[in-house]
Amino acid sequence: MPEIQVFPMTSDYLASGQSIGDFFTSDLVTASRHRPIAGRFNFKKQGVTAPPGSILLFQYNAHLVAHAKFISKNPPDTDSPLDSKGFFMLDLATLKYYIRPISAVDLQGFWPGLAFDQRKRKLDVGQLPAFLAFTSTR
Asked: Are 9 and 27 in contact (CB under 8 A)?
């Protein structure tokens, strides 16, 4: 069964001088040397533990900044950066970058007690429709 998982990010995922907005609206959606297929997300630690079809909520700087549907987790390959532990594929048709990032306080109405830190968290799927409606204004 699909899940909702929070995926914490640090500035290590960004190129020097790159904004988180540029990462999600330009870098991730464009093929490049380390991303020969758009939608490929090279991860630096353990990646995602959710099953395919799950929704990933990307956390950066104590806010949610984007979400997308998770397709697959893959081991590093010849296109992976040296510091990559692998990559996962995202469904770009479902990628939504929030121009106005979502704070932990905003999320309390959907997932009470949720706090941001560097742990991956699985959230109650039952709240997904209301959360997605909320993000449509972000």
From this structure: no
Question: What is the per-residue DSSP string for 88-133?
Answer: EEEEEEEEEEEEEEEEHHHHTTTSTT---SSS-EEE-GGGHHHHHH
On whether the CB atoms of residues 58 and 67 are closer than 8 A, the answer is yes
Q: Are 88 and 71 in contact (CB under 8 A)?
A: yes
pLDDT for res 67: 96
CA distance 42 to 44: 7
CA distance 30 to 135: 23
Residue whose C-alpha is closest to residue 121's, from 110, 132, 129: 110
Predicted TM-score (pTM) of the model is: 0.88
Which tokens belong to 56? 């990933």
